[in-house]
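(Protein data)
===
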Amino acid sequence: MIDAIKNQQSKINNLRVGTLPLLLLALVILAYLAFLFFAPQSPPKPDDTWTRIQNEKIVRIGIDPSSPPFIVDDGKGNLSGFDVALANELAHKWGVKIQWVYTGYDGLYDALNAKQFDLILSALPYNPSKTQDVFFSHAYFNGGPVLIVRGDDTTTTDLAGLQNKTIAVELGSNGDAAARKYQKRYNLNLKQFNTSQDALRALQRGAVNAAIVDPITFIDFQRAEADTGAKTWRVVGKSLADENYIIAVRRDAPTLLREINAVIDSLRRAGKLDEMQKENF
């Protein structure tokens, strides 16, 4: 009996000696992992581009100033447009000055990656084929096609309200493609024209019930035809397809990208982007 008790105690002692170090090691590992997961992380180091902008107090912006109403040069070096207003907001928020770098539109991406400037802000639409080369900001304007009706049409609230009606589109445009997506669903009669302006003139004559064009073309038409009542025409609903305008930065500038997005998001929440659009369009 005494020998059996001694053997059992020996087994317990051996268990304690063999397992305690392993339990302690496991607890140490768990504590370390918990620290890594829950401990506050130090902020990432700012990228070199953002650091230089802050140190020199200058942001270099690549542009092709031939895209009104986004950005245009009056021939005397004076720039105006929506993109210029947005650039000024960025510079104001960051406390820096702007250095404009003129570049041909087709060469903007190459010049950006050659570090000739810090970012592109020049009527630049989102291009998925470029996402391996650059970072794109949040959208600051949607240039996708919109549904337009005359001022005396007070009942149309969406495409569903135009069932069996005739809609003017520009042949081969994004508006044409968007309209075809809904053609069968709402039994739309699409009438194609050579240009978006021709589509809007058909609406003006009363030859169609509505038109689908890009918002810039519509705004230009309203301005040109203000005396004919086009100012009373309205956009129905949201864009029928996205054609987002963005800012591009190099992929080695994530801090700059975050700062750009922060300003764009702030301007959108405050309604400032809409104000800038009205002022420049």
Notes: Residues 53-142+243-280 form a domain with the D-Maltodextrin-Binding Protein; domain 2 fold (CATH 3.40.190.10). Residues 2-38 form the longest helix (37 residues). The two ends are 101 Å apart (CA to CA).
